Structures are given as C-alpha cells and as structure tokens.
C-alpha cells in the first residue's frame, strides 16, 4: 500500500549543507577505491566537501577521470588513477602515484566492488572470484598498504569500508556479495584492534537501499516508490547521505569511534511482522531472484 499522507517522512538536508565544516579535512588526502561513480563517488564528494584532496581510483581510468571532474567542481584538488585492487603491486604503485600528486594518503575509503543477482547454485567460479576478490582482497590489500605507510610515518589516519545491510538478512541472489561484505565487516573489527595503538581508526557502513545511476538494487519498474513503501523510514536513502556518514566517521568529531559497522538502512532491517507478504523462494520468482529484473 502507499505510504499514508499523515506519516512523517524525514528528508536529509540538501547536498550543499553537509554536517561538518568546509575545512574539517583541510590538508588531508583521501584515496577512494571505486570512486568514479555510484556510492564511491558519493564518498569522494563528501570528503571533498570537507576540504580533502581526493584521489579517485578505479579499474577504468575513464570512469575515474569523470569522477575526478565532479570533485574539481567542488573546488578541491583531485587526481584520477587506474588500479585493480586485487593485485598488491598495483595497489602499492597507486599509493606511490597519489603521494607524488597529492601527498601522503591519510584517509582511505574502500568502496571497490562488484555485484549482480544470481542464485547460489548458478554462481560460477569466475563469478564468485570476480565479486569476492575485489571486495575481500581489495579491502585487505588497500588497508594494509595504507596502515604500513601511516605506521612508518608515525602518523594516524582513518579508514571507512562500504559493507552492506544484507550481511545479516540473507538477501536473495547475493551469496557471493554477502560473503564478501561480511568479510569486510569482520576485517573492520580486526584491523581496528590491530591498528588502534598507531592512531588508525577503522569503521564500516552497512548500507541499505541507496538507488543511483549505476545500480539496479533498490529500483523497480515504475521507480523506487514500491521499495519506499517497504521501509519504515518511508523512503530509500539519498546517495549523499551515505557519503556524509562515511566521511563523518573519519572526522575528528568521531575520534573515539573505531571497529564499528554502522547500519544505515532507514530501518529496513527492522521490517519484520506477522503481516508481511508471503515468502516466495528466489528460484520461483517470475521476475528474478531479487524480485525485479
């Protein structure tokens, strides 16, 4: 049913009103993996709004350059580079390049990932590796490279990882991505413990539905309204909200926050009642395992 008119739906401030000052990241350089589009670009733009220099990294240099151009519009320095986060030599070379162009990386946003709906029994080895290695290996390789460099400099820093709400809910068609995102959440806690003595904080955002131009998740034919009706908050997330929360975990405002996996889903994970629609097994759904094509 539609959201009743008398329900209060809280909306976020507009993009040009971030929840922190324009200089909170002044003098800092952030590296955002998969930062050329989607949720990674939202992260990159949020850091830029706080005055950070932004390195936009992706496998596609063209996409990274397009993202860097969006950062330039915000009045901060940006640098685009290509890197496959599954390869440690490329990761090390990427950090070297960013240091030459923008200075030492003191903030890291691990967003690089891949996902597509497929039933578990139909996941090929190549498909499994394509999704899990980017998220698991990539997060580990970039984070450990970051930490080694910060420790050698005797300086702290902050990492934020893009996990997902469905690591707890068993989202259909997502065995590969759920496994990878769960590993990210576990790494977040372990790395936070290992690196706390060096002043390096590590947190993650477990995001719900944030429809954007490069994502099919959160969309149905006719727009996002059907999903909004299913979420207690009455709406899906605005992509800049995700970017803001990600960047906020790296600010001095939350200096005591580390090892946390923060759920940002509009209460969707709380939507459990006796009156929910009948469950249809993913393989029996006429419109695909996610419930839509």
Automatic annotation (TrEMBL):
Pfam families: adh_short (PF00106). Gene3D superfamilies: NAD(P)-binding Rossmann-like Domain (3.40.50.720). GO terms for molecular function: oxidoreductase activity. Keywords: Oxidoreductase. Residues 28-208 form the Ketoreductase domain. Coiled coil: none annotated. PANTHER family: 17-BETA-HYDROXYSTEROID DEHYDROGENASE 14-RELATED, SHORT-CHAIN DEHYDROGENASE/REDUCTASE. This is NAD(P)-dependent dehydrogenase (Short-subunit alcohol dehydrogenase family). It comes from Novosphingobium kunmingense. The lineage of its organism: Bacteria, Pseudomonadati, Pseudomonadota, Alphaproteobacteria, Sphingomonadales.
């Amino acid at each position: 049913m539609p959201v009743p008119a008398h329900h209060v739906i809280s909306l976020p401030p507009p993009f040009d009103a971030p929840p922190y000052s324009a200089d909170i990241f002044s003098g800092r350089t952030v590296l955002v993996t998969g930062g050329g589009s989607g949720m990674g670009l939202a992260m990159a733009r949020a850091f830029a709004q706080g005055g950070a220099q932004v390195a936009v990294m992706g496998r596609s240099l063209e996409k990274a350059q397009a993202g860097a151009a969006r950062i330039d519009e915000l009045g901060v320095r940006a640098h685009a580079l290509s890197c496959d986060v599954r390869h440690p030599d490329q990761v090390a070379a990427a950090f070297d390049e960013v240091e030459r162009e923008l200075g030492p990386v003191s903030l890291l946003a691990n967003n690089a990932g891949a996902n597509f709906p497929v039933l578990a029994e139909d996941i090929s080895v190549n498909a499994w590796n394509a999704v899990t290695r980017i998220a698991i290996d990539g997060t580990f390789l970039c984070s450990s490279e970051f930490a080694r460099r910060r420790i050698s400099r005797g300086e702290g820093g902050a990492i934020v990882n893009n996990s997902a709400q469905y690591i707890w809910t068993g989202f259909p068609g997502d065995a590969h991505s759920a496994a990878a995102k769960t590993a990210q959440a576990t790494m977040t806690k372990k790395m936070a413990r290992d690196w706390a003595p060096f002043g390096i904080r590590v947190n993650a955002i477990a995001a719900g539905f944030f429809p954007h131009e490069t994502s099919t998740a959160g969309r149905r034919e006719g727009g996002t309204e059907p999903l909004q009706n299913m979420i207690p908050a009455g709406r899906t997330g605005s992509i800049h909200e995700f970017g803001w929360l990600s960047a906020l975990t790296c600010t001095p405002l939350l200096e005591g926050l580390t090892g946390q996996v923060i759920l940002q889903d509009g209460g969707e994970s709380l939507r459990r009642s006796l009156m929910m629609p009948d469950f249809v097994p993913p393989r029996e759904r006429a419109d695909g395992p996610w419930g839509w094509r």
